[in-house]
Amino acid sequence: MDKLYHKPKPDEHPPWEQKRARSKELTKQRFLQAVGSLIKQDGMKGLTTRKIAAVAGHSKRLIYDYFGSLDNLIREFLHKSDHWLSYEERMDKIRTDHKGDHGRELAALMLKNHLYSFYSDGLLQEVSLMELANKNNELLIGIHQLRERVGDKVFAIFEEYFKGTNVNIRMIEALLIGGINYLVLHSGSIGTTFCGIDINKEQDRRELRATLEQITQWAYDHAKER
Fold first, then answer.
1. 182-215 tens-digit pLDDT
2. CA 99, CA 74: separation in Å to the nearest integer?
3. What is the predicted pLDDT for the residue at 40?
4. What angle do CA 43, 146, 161 make, to 5 degrees?
5. Which is it for the CA torsion 112, 114, 115, 117, positive or negative?
6. Which residues, other chains included, contact 44 with Cβ-Cβ below 8 Å and sequence gap of 6+?
7. Of 55, 107, 118, 131, most Cβ neighbours within 10 A?
8. CATH number of the structural domain spanning residue 9
9. Do 48 and 73 lie in a common domain?
10. How far apart are CA 219 and CA 226, in angstroms?
11. Counting beta carbons within 10 angstroms of the beta carbon of residue 56, is it exposed (0 to 12), middle (13 to 18) or buried (19 or more)?
């Protein structure tokens, strides 16, 4: 009988607890996926506990058990779906990797990554439109403010290089990010070109990526001359 009995180690959870934990995480993922599906369909107005529970296939009581509130569920979804916030988790490595060139490579890389993510993910586009349309929504404001704090940490890698020059790298990045967003949203809503650029064509996206890098390199080169 001794050979048939497995005594758990002090830090090992019993199999039934492990199974319950996996089931809980799977259920949480289904709720998060349901939020994403409803945002794509109806925006923020579709986010009710009843609708989310129905799409997830679970009792709405579990939303409160696992997330504490509907707002917490939506907040967790927005946090996990925002690619800018992923920089926070990797900030130490980002600083280490890009300290040597004062963020020259990073300045272009994060723009090209944003272009790829924003163009390919309709959910990110929908959340961006929600931020513009729901100016008093505390959840969206909170995500925006968190994104700004992460941005401050990224810009700290750049700004020492530009100190004392007439180049404002924040202004440049803001204009380029805003331009990317408009090009993508314009093509999705109207479906026509903008300044002759068709962002739905791979060739135009390739040239846009090259231009993003070219502009940031101009900024660094100009600051160096000063």
1. 999 998 887 789 999 999 999 999 999 999 999 9
2. 35
3. 84
4. 130
5. positive
6. 130, 134, 137
7. 107
8. 1.10.10.60
9. yes
10. 11
11. buried
Residue 13 belongs to domain spanning:
2-79
Say if residue 43 is in the same domain as residue 122. no
Q: Which helix (H) or strand (E) holds 160?
A: helix 138-162
Q: In whole angstroms, what is the distance from residue 126 CA to residue 38 CA? A: 11
Backbone phi, then psi, for 197, in 5-degree steps? -95, 130
d(CA 206, CA 65): 46
Domain identity same for 167 and 146: yes
Q: 134 and 197 share a domain? A: yes
Within 13 A of 68's CA, how many CA atoms are on the CB side?
5
pTM of the model: 0.81
| Distance from C-alpha of 128 to C-alpha of 126, rounded to nearest angstrom | 5
Q: Give me the amino acid identity at 28.
A: K
